[in-house]
């Protein structure tokens, strides 16, 4: 998969995939979007001292990096599992890290997220553990459960197979009661597919450039 780095509106980088005409993050601001949708709307909301996160699409590692920084700032244990079918080449994440280091410190931490082994839970920093899983989300099943889901696949228009009722039923099983899922999509079909899987779904105002996003919760009982 060919990927090109682009600088987004807040100065942070993202990848663009020409064959899909898809970006990894919003061109209005990659960090701004990630912090808004995943850190603030999900991670910050989990009222537990130890939080388990599941991400669909490790990608550039930006969501993981911002979650790791949050874990250190909040002194809150985070165990972060992420599936990815097309991991970056080292040259790609190094180039990405170069862009990132122009606007944010901790590029060492960012490197650690990429250097660590796959398929194995690794202690990245004092409060942050990471397991990167090379797998296809459409066939991925796990008995592990999570408090927070970052649903960050490519868009439903280009990868319809990642946003189906079956996928959300599978994710539902991986959610603890009360767990929260957030995604940048606001599609009506996605909302209905999530509802058919048993999730309580709402649309809320999104970050700059996105009128709305979807937030979904697993009922407590
Ligand atoms: C929107 S990007 C994710 C961005 C990422 N969360 C980040 O912080 O950079 C979508 C990701 O899903 C991955 N992907 C595409 N198809 C997949 C599949 N079937 N299973 C798992 N990951 C997939 C892509 O390679 C890409 O990294």
Write a structural description.
The chain has 221 residues and is of the alpha/beta class. It has one domain (32-95, 106-217): Rossmann fold, CATH 3.40.50. It is built from six helices and eleven strands. The protein has helices at 30-40, 62-74, 90-101, 107-115, 165-173, 188-196, and strands at 4-7, 13-17, 22-23, 50-56, 77-84, 122-125, 128-134, 146-151, 175-183, 200-205, 212-217. The chain has an eight-stranded mixed β-sheet with strand order 6-7-5-4-8-9-11-10, sandwiched between helices. Strands 1-2-3 form a three-stranded antiparallel β-sheet, covered by helices on one side. Helix 1 packs across helix 2 and helix 3 runs antiparallel to helix 4. The longest helix has 13 residues, at 62-74. The N and C termini lie far apart (42 Å). The structure holds S-adenosylmethionine. Residues 24, 55, 57, 59-60, 62-63, 83-86, 136-138, 152-154, 159, 162 line the site of S-adenosylmethionine (SAM). The site of S-adenosylmethionine has 19 residues, from helix 2 and strand 5.
Task: Please tally the helical runs, counting DSSP H or I stretches of 4 or more residues.
Answer: 6
Strand line-up across the major sheet = 6-7-5-4-8-9-11-10
- Overall geometric form: globular
Overall tally of structural domains? 1
User: What's the architecture in CATH terms?
Assistant: 3-Layer(aba) Sandwich
CATH topology: Rossmann fold
The ligands found in this model are: S-adenosylmethionine
Relative helix content: 25-40%
Parts with pLDDT < 50 across at least 5 consecutive residues: none
Number of strands: 11
Radius of gyration: 16 Å
Task: Indicate the CATH class.
Answer: Alpha Beta
In N-to-C order, the SSE pattern is EEEHEHEHHEEEHEHEE
Estimated structural class: alpha/beta
CA-to-CA gap between the ends?
42 Å
């Amino acid at each position: 998969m060919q990927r090109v780095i682009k600088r987004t509106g807040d100065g942070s980088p993202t990848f663009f995939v020409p064959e899909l005409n898809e970006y990894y993050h919003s061109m209005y601001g990659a960090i701004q979007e990630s912090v808004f949708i995943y850190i603030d709307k999900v991670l910050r909301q989990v009222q537990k001292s130890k939080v388990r996160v599941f991400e669909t699409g490790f990608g550039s590692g930006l969501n993981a990096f911002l979650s790791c920084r949050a874990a250190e700032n909040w002194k809150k244990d985070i165990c972060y599992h992420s599936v990815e079918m097309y991991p970056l080449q080292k040259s790609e994440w190094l180039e990405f890290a170069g862009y990132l280091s122009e606007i944010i410190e901790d590029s060492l931490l960012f490197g650690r997220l990429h250097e660590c082994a796959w398929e194995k839970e690794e202690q990245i920093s004092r409060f942050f553990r990471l397991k990167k899983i090379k797998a296809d989300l459409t066939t991925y099943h796990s008995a592990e459960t999570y408090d927070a889901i970052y649903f960050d696949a490519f868009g439903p228009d280009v990868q319809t197979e990642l946003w189906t009722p079956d996928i959300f039923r599978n994710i539902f099983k991986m959610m603890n009661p009360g767990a929260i899922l957030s995604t940048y999509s606001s599609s009506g079909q996605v909302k209905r597919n999530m509802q058919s899987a048993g999730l309580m779904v709402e649309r809320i105002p999104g970050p700059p450039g996105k009128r709305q996003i979807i937030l979904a919760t697993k009922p407590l009982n």
